[in-house]
Amino acid sequence: MTESKCADFERLRSDVDAKLQHLIELTTLLLQVFRAGDYKVFSRYDKDLENSVGQKERAIGALRQHSIEHRCQPGKTEFMKEFNE
Ligand SMILES: [Zn+2]
After folding, report:
1. Ligand 1 centroid to 52 CA: how many Å?
2. What is the pTM (predicted TM-score) of this model?
3. Domain that holds residue 35
4. What is the full DSSP assignment across 23-64?
5. How many domains in the chain?
6. Could you tell me which of 1, 60, 61, 72 has the fewest CB atoms within 10 Å of its CB?
7. How far is the CA of 65 from the centre of ligand 1 (A)?
8. Which stretches in the chain have pLDDT values below 70?
9. Residue 73 near residue 65 (C-beta atoms within 8 A)
10. 64 close to 83: Cβ distance less than 8 angstroms
């Protein structure tokens, strides 16, 4: 258990976690606005969602790159490679 405790990896992992959680919240909000038929507000949140997806992609990319370069996650590197391809 101690071998995989890399502070940087944990920080990057938390970042991906937070960004995925944010996507859930934003998508839920977007759905509510969509159902309410408020298309002006919808457009704004829809743009936010696009930006948030981009941020999530970068966070995953950073996590993947760290795990490959730092080799602090033995046994997980192949998985990290796969999910960005
Ligand atoms: Zn590391």
Report:
1. 25
2. 0.80
3. 2-82
4. HHHHHHHHHHHHHHT-HHHHHHHHHHHHHHHHHHHHHHHHHH
5. 1
6. 1
7. 10
8. 1-4, 76-85
9. no
10. yes
